[in-house]
Specification:
It is a single chain. This protein is of the alpha/beta class and 314 residues long. It is built from twelve helices and 14 strands. It has helices at residues 14-26, 51-60, 78-87, 97-112, 116-126, 155-161, 183-190, 202-210, 215-221, 242-248, 255-261, 295-313; strands at 7-11, 32-36, 42-44, 47-49, 132-135, 143-147, 151-154, 168-173, 194-197, 226-229, 232-233, 236-237, 268-272, 284-288. Bound molecules: guanosine-5'-diphosphate (GDP).
């Protein structure tokens, strides 16, 4: 039953792409839609960089560099090296030579007036992806991180340049008031049978998606399984700043905090076997091994989640 469902996944970057890759192994690609965070996007060297869209796209196309989980496999950095050697530009944001092709084409299409939704559809079609890849919206909605040390930082300055070391006071998305849910996102959610929240960073990767005006109401109104997967295992994040940010925001680093954060937009939760099971009124929860270290783990988790949801719906 679950295999014939339309599955919509809200996702960020590397953490979310692991689940995306598992889902692709167990569900028909044409039934999968990924709504991807674009709060990380920025203009750099005249290029429009969309890190989470590209991580998801390269993963789904089987082209991602496996050692880091982002960028293109076997890429080189001749262009960035030349920028540094010839012009002294510090290459703080890594861009591979083959990866540049994506940014060049996307920038050109944006300047021609194409929407990010249409561009993402074209790029993924050309890369042979059967699943649907949708940016959370077409407007620019950059994530701004308010820090103790530096005041407001653009997302990539915080995450890459400062290696997420500054203490976070708050996070918001600039330009949200002028943004809206695209027709493509609206119709994907309207046709959904299951909505999954990937185990992405709730504050940095999923919050921007939920901040698109209209998105929360749309999700809240859906009467179907809306299931988040915990990014917290055994009191810590698997990778990245999720746990650090939670502590800085005065929150407990537990799966319960994640469930509370998603209050109103989820009705199901996949906790990890290493955590105490979260129990809330009106919330269905299960515990699975959510640590995805290899492709078998990714496939097994995706399958277990879909089986659990199928039982619940039957
Ligand atoms: P990233 O910042 O580019 O890695 O992108 P995401 O926001 O998509 O993912 C970050 C989150 O993924 C972190 O909170 C991690 O704890 C979580 N994560 C990464 N790998 C795994 C995993 O194998 N299992 C679970 N449950 N969470 C994971």
């Amino acid at each position: 039953m679950a295999l014939a469902s339309n599955i919509v996944v809200l996702t960020g970057g590397v953490g979310g792409a692991k689940l995306a890759s598992g889902l692709l192994d167990v569900a028909p690609a044409e039934r999968l839609t990924f709504i991807v965070n674009t709060g990380d996007d920025f203009w750099h060297l005249g290029l429009r960089i969309c890190p989470d869209l590209d991580t998801t796209m390269y993963t789904l196309a089987g082209l991602v560099e496996p050692t880091q989980g982002w960028g293109l496999r076997d890429d080189s950095t001749v262009t960035l090296d030349a920028l540094q050697a010839n012009y002294g530009l510090e290459p703080w944001f890594k861009l591979g030579d083959k990866d540049l092709a994506t940014h060049l084409l996307r920038g050109e299409m944006l300047r021609r007036g194409d929407s990010l939704t249409d561009i993402s559809a074209r790029l993924s079609r050309e890369l042979g992806i059967g699943a649907r890849l949708l940016p959370m919206c077409d407007a620019e909605m950059p994530t701004i991180v308010e820090t103790d040390e530096y005041g407001e930082l653009g997302f990539q300055e915080y995450f890459v340049k400062q290696r997420w070391q500054p203490a976070v006071k708050s996070i918001h998305n600039r330009g949200a008031a002028a943004a809206g849910v695209s027709d493509a996102v609206k119709s994907a959610l309207t046709a959904a049978d299951i909505v999954l929240f990937a185990p992405s960073n709730p504050w940095l990767s999923v919050a921007p998606i939920l901040a698109v005006p209209g998105m929360r109401d749309l999700l809240a109104a859906l009467d179907l399984p809306k299931v988040a997967v915990t990014p917290i295992i055994g009191g810590d994040a698997v990778k990245g700043p999720t746990a650090k940010i939670m502590r800085e925001l005065g929150l407990q680093v537990t799966a319960t905090t994640i469930v509370e954060y998603y209050h109103g937009v989820i009705n199901g939760f996949v906790d990890d076997v290493r955590n105490d099971l979260c129990q809330f009124d009106g919330l269905r929860a299960t515990r699975l091994d959510t640590l995805m270290q290899d492709q078998n783990d990714k496939r097994a988790l995706a399958e277990a989640i879909l089986n659990w949801i199928a039982e619940w719906r039957s």
